[in-house]
Amino acid sequence: MNKRVTVFFATGNIGKVEEAERIFKEENIPLLHLPMKLLEIQSDDLEEIAVFSAQKAWEDQEKPLFVEDAGLFIKELKGFPGPYSSYVSKTVSNEGILKLMSQIEDRSAYFKAVIAFCNGKNTLTFKGEVKGEISREIRGTHGFGFDPIFIPEEGDGRTFGEMDISEKTAISHRTRALRKFAEWVKSTDSSKFI
Ligand code: IMP
User: Fold this and answer.
1) How many Å lie between the centroid of ligand 1 and the Cα of residue 182?
2) Which residue ranges of the chain lie beneath pLDDT 70?
3) Tens digits of residue pLDDT in 62-76
4) Ligand 1 neighbour 89 (Cβ under 6 A)
5) Ligand 1 atom at minimal distance to the Cα of residue 49
6) What is the rounded CA–CA span in Å between residue 87 and residue 94?
7) How much is the mean pLDDT over the chain?
8) Which domains does the chain have, with CATH numbers?
9) With a 6 A CB cut-off, is 93 part of the ligand 1 pocket?
């Protein structure tokens, strides 16, 4: 196992850092937060966005780092807001999504997270998803973004916003991507890592 490697998480989102710190602690991998505003291209593909952001962040920092890009995909809205989740969350927010969904019966949705790791030579991606549905009202004050309107399928009917961080991270899209990434870190020789 590769214990000496420190992984840098480039993000401006402290909610994401808290989730990643829990997983990496469990996996016994040192994690450092690189607080930065990432450059994002406009694309319909989360993976493309994450890869671009990771490569740009590496050019800026020259450290083995990863970024994570996530989005909420709503079936009856043909995947909206998807890659535009951040903008939608900042503008119309949860109230706007609920309004758009007011006449919609099938409330199926999923969160997807893509991690892109870049060491200046290679860029690798790791993905995770969690299925669920959009609630009829805003519920809960925990978490961030769409947490108060997302009810995970594997839960007990509460939204992510009604769960504490450990309940959410047990099943979240981000956790799933982070665990795959952590497995890779642990099984990779440090000479290949840097
Ligand atoms: P980005 O990955 O920072 O571009 O995030 C996209 C947007 O999706 C965020 O601003 C949140 O609004 C939303 N989002 C991503 N992951 C989560 C999550 O775990 N819970 C709630 N909202 C999320």
Assistant:
1) 21
2) 1-4, 192-194
3) 999 999 999 999 999
4) yes
5) 4
6) 12
7) 93
8) 7-193 (3.90.950.10)
9) no
Known catalytic residue at 69: yes
Residue 152: how many CA atoms within 13 Å on its side-chain side? 19
Which residue's C-alpha comes closest to atom 10 of ligand 1?
Answer: 86
Look at residue 10 in the predicted model and tell me its pLDDT. 97
Among protein residues, the one whose CA lies closest to atom 23 of ligand 1: 145
Given the structure tokens 């007011």, which residue do they identify? 102
Q: How far apart are CA 12 and CA 93, in angstroms?
A: 19
Helices (H), the chain: 14-27, 46-61, 85-90, 93-100, 165-171, 173-187, 190-193
Residue 96 identity (one-letter amino acid): G
Q: Are strands 123-134 and 108-118 parallel, antiparallel or unpaired?
A: antiparallel
For residue 53, what is the DSSP state? H
